[in-house]
Write a structure and sequence with these properties.
Oligomer: heterodimer
Structural class of chain B: alpha/beta
Number of helices of chain B: 10
Number of domains of chain A: 1
Strand content of chain B: 15-25%
Structural class of chain A: mainly alpha
Number of helices of chain A: 11
Mean pLDDT of chain A: 91
Distance between the termini of chain B: 69 Å
Number of strands of chain B: 10
Largest sheet of chain B: 5 strands, mixed
CATH architecture of chain A: Orthogonal Bundle
Helix content of chain B: 40-55%
């Protein structure tokens, strides 16, 4: 059995989770700190969650395909996104971003304004208030969001096959491998991949739960 | 705690780097990207090995998907050299849009439609006409409006003039694999699938093959994408695809070669 889809899935999901973590938390904090117009950004940033992934993939293909301005610009710079691992990372990131964003928004909303006001009164700068007061207080929610968005990235199929294609040993992720095995009538292989995906999801969700639990105990 | 976090960040950064560089590693060979219908996955993997053993200068890169999705990828300028379509419709659309060179298009292979029954079935089904016998309670068919094999099934039973009787005991699946599953598990007494599915099926027997004149033919098409930068290599591979060597591979997975000229 060729294990390359496992490696490709983990690579794409890890890279996308790092990107989504930074972008999602920053965007969530930016919107939380806004005085008005939050709902516009909340709607905008959650959009990929309501769109079917195939539609998201179709839009990404239009954006990054050679016919578009962005695609042409990138290809002049020698960067190709379609049919590469970069495409898989972008697909996973776009689809899992709303999850990170929404959970981080919720977590920030629950941190009382009193803390940040107190920090500011004691002379802390905006950034260090965020890093040392708000972020630690919102960490449970953010870790949960990170876990969910990683899981979502691992399971991503529709947008991935559209933009990254289904190239064995290059862009074929585990979910895409299941589809391919089913389509070519190789049920045994499909079930084997399903088993691997289930095991990874199970182990990663349990370990994050345990880790979160131990953090909670320490903070008490 | 802090050390651990730094180590984790470093590991992630290393992964990012090797992830981006490994894709650019092997560049000496000419890459030919072939977009192929998902049903061709296994045959194409065999062909890739055979072809690369003989042509060390060419690196065949296959991407598999539904023919409609592959058509959209070519329309949006995805970097592709050859298109192997399971349907005539998708290839025709690309030829109309001048995205596939019409002179390069040829018939790749043919798929047949067969009637299957569970192994050891007591329903005594040996032909399409036997389906209306009282011993058949349920026949599994593809949903005619959305599943191509369902449309072919309707054509075949229409040809025999027994469509209404068959419809009365039909259970419609959302794709051909579902139809196959129902017959494999014995939930249906018989079903209509492609001969390539029957080849992969477990615990089933082919009761009959639909005669050629009973339905429109299922022809897979091959064509060279107009924007290819490797026309010579693409043409060479297209020639290989129509060789006897390749036909044998396709036949091993239940496909037939296209009879007659063109």
């Amino acid at each position: 059995m060729d294990y390359s889809p496992l490696v490709i899935s983990i690579k794409a999901s890890l890279i996308s989770s790092v990107i989504v973590f930074v972008l999602g938390v920053t965007a969530a904090w930016g919107v939380t700190a806004m005085r008005r117009g939050r709902f516009i950004f909340d709607t905008l940033f959650s959009l990929p969650m309501v769109l079917p992934p195939t539609v998201t993939g179709f839009f990404l293909l239009i954006i990054f395909g050679k016919n578009s301005f962005a695609g042409e610009l990138l290809s002049r710079m020698g960067i190709s996104v379609v049919f590469t691992l970069k495409g898989a990372v972008i697909a996973a990131a776009v689809v899992s971003f709303p999850i990170m964003y929404t959970t981080a928004r919720g977590a920030f909303d629950q941190v009382s304004r009193l803390y940040s006001d107190a920090a500011k009164n004691l002379g802390m700068s905006g950034i260090s208030t965020f890093l040392r007061v708000i972020l630690p207080n919102a960490s449970h929610g953010i870790i949960g969001g990170l876990m969910l968005s990683f899981a979502r990235a691992m399971g991503e199929f529709g947008a991935t096959i559209m933009i990254a294609g289904n190239i064995p040993r290059r862009t074929q992720t585990m979910s895409v491998a299941v589809y391919t095995a089913m389509q070519s009538g190789n049920r045994e292989l499909a079930f084997r991949w399903v088993l691997i995906i289930l095991t990874i999801s199970f182990v990663s969700i349990i370990s994050v739960r345990l880790w979160n639990e131990s953090l909670r105990r320490k903070s008490r | 705690m802090k050390m651990k976090r730094i180590a984790l960040a470093a590991a992630l950064a290393a992964l990012c780097l090797c992830g981006c560089s490994s894709a650019d590693a092997k560049k000496e060979r000419t890459e030919i990207t072939v977009l192929a219908a998902a049903s061709l996955t296994e045959s194409c993997e065999d062909i890739e090995k055979m072809y690369e053993a003989e042509h060390s200068g060419t690196d065949l890169v296959f991407s598999f998907g539904g023919s409609g999705a592959l058509q959209i990828q070519i329309e949006e300028g995805a970097p592709a050299d050859i298109f192997l379509s399971a349907g005539k419709k998708q290839m025709d659309a690309l030829v109309d849009e001048k995205l596939v060179d019409s002179s390069s298009v040829n018939d790749l292979l043919e798929n047949k439609v067969v009637l299957i029954v569970p192994e050891g079935s007591k329903a005594e089904v040996y032909s399409f006409e036997d389906v209306i016998s009282d011993k058949v309670g349920v026949i599994a068919l593809g949903e005619p409006s959305s599943v191509p094999v369902g449309q072919y099934s309707e054509e075949i039973f229409g040809y025999y003039g027994i469509l209404d009787e068959v419809r009365a005991k039909a259970s419609y699946g959302s794709d051909v694999k579902q139809v196959l599953s129902w017959v494999e598990t014995g939930d249906a007494d018989c079903g209509v699938v492609y001969s390539t599915d029957a080849q992969n099926g477990k615990n089933i027997r082919v009761a009959a093959e639909a005669p050629e004149e009973s339905h429109s033919r299922i022809i897979y098409k091959a064509g060279i994408v107009a924007s290819t930068a490797h026309e010579k290599e693409a043409e060479e591979f297209m020639k290989f695809l129509s060789s006897d060597e390749c036909s044998d591979v396709f036949a091993g997975y239940g496909f037939s070669s296209v009879g007659g000229a063109g």
